[in-house]
What we know:
Layout lengths: L3 H27 L4 H8 L1 H14 L4 H20 L3 H4 L3 H17 L4 H9 L1 H13 L1 H31 L5 H24 L8
Amino acid sequence: MVNTTSDRAGLTMLLRDAALPMALYYVLRSFEVGALWALLVSAVPPVLRTGYVLVRHRRIDPISAFVLAVLLVNATVAVLSGDARLLLVRSASITLPLGAVMLASLVVGRRPLLFRAACTFQPARAESLDRLWGVSRAFRERWRSATLWWGAGCLLLGCVVVVLAFTLPVDVVPFLDTALTVGSVLLGVKLTRQRLGINRTVDA
């Protein structure tokens, strides 16, 4: 059975963190706000949301803290340089390190990053997932291969965004970046669910 609640939560997150900043950027540009400042303001919703999550849970979530730090550093560098294109690569500043960490977790970690993330975001299933990890080699291999796909995909997406940011007109990039990111995430989630059987009973 399709996990409708999870689907809605994921779609809401994509709309909030990707589509909303893009829409805000183009609204500001329609009022002739400069590209640099429009990009800065469009980054405010994700920053506020990440900060809210950190404050609400009163603990430092490594992923949220990393995203917040990247956004703030990226914005600071762009303002000091006055180059709007440096803000266009902010999504790549997240996906490139994330992809590298995912791939590294296959080599140096006890469990791949994607598996640990699933246990963190699905605490009700964490115990059963951990049990299956310990007894099923096929189960472990499926998660390792999914982590490999996601890691490679993040690296590829980040590289494409960097190329777009420095070769295309500034006003074109936010739309393409958002479309590529949303499309890649939706495709990745669909393929991962099919491979891991997330929408059906987890077995070995």
